[in-house]
């Protein structure tokens, strides 16, 4: 059984529409992930407390496809991408819709600031960052004179661009990064599942596309 839900921030009226097999757990995950994600919901959640959010079950569906379709319809009907709405995409399983999320996030962060907006960086930290950057430049230069190191680096780049399939939804992605952005999970977690180092991540199972 899948559920389409709405979470509402009671003090302000901001809301988000989503779908999940376990909406209560999903609300907890939204809040737990808000400091590392950059969606409109995550950016807003950082300024709130979880006790201020109210969960409302809107529909129950027999399949994930029905849940996706219902979610997409409600995002449109409730105008959840404008005003008090915090949805970054139209929702549903439409990959083309979710690919537009990048521009939405760029606009949102430009308006509201990223997670480190206003952060004070000490001189010691700046010096350490500069040292690390110089080290990266040296490493890049080293690749040109070391064929074996360059071959290993190229192999790692190829692996980063390997196609990956989500067995749960049936979607295929051109890269781990695209799958992570589409499904809202960590790239390292996806790689661990593909490499059989863990069974699943957020109820999703992944595999490399050979």
Structural overview:
The protein is an alpha+beta fold and 210 residues long. It folds into three domains: 2-112, 3-Layer(aba) Sandwich (GIY-YIG endonuclease), CATH 3.40.1440; 123-158, no CATH class; 161-208, no CATH class. It is built from nine helices and six strands. It has helices spanning 23-33, 40-45, 64-77, 95-98, 101-112, 123-144, 147-160, 176-183, 187-194; strands spanning 2-9, 15-20, 53-61, 164-166, 172-173, 206-208. The strands form two sheets. A three-stranded antiparallel β-sheet has the order 2-1-3. Strands 5-4-6 form a three-stranded antiparallel β-sheet. Strand 4 and strand 5 form a beta hairpin.
Low-confidence stretches: none
Main sheet characteristics: 3 strands, antiparallel
CATH topology of the largest domain: GIY-YIG endonuclease
Which of globular, elongated, flat, extended, rod-shaped describes the shape? globular
Oligomer: single chain
Number of helices: 9
Total tally of structural domains: 3
Which CATH class of the largest domain is shown? Alpha Beta
Mean pLDDT: 79
Reported CATH architecture of the largest domain? 3-Layer(aba) Sandwich
Strand fraction: 5-15%
Indicate the percent of residues in helices: 40-55%
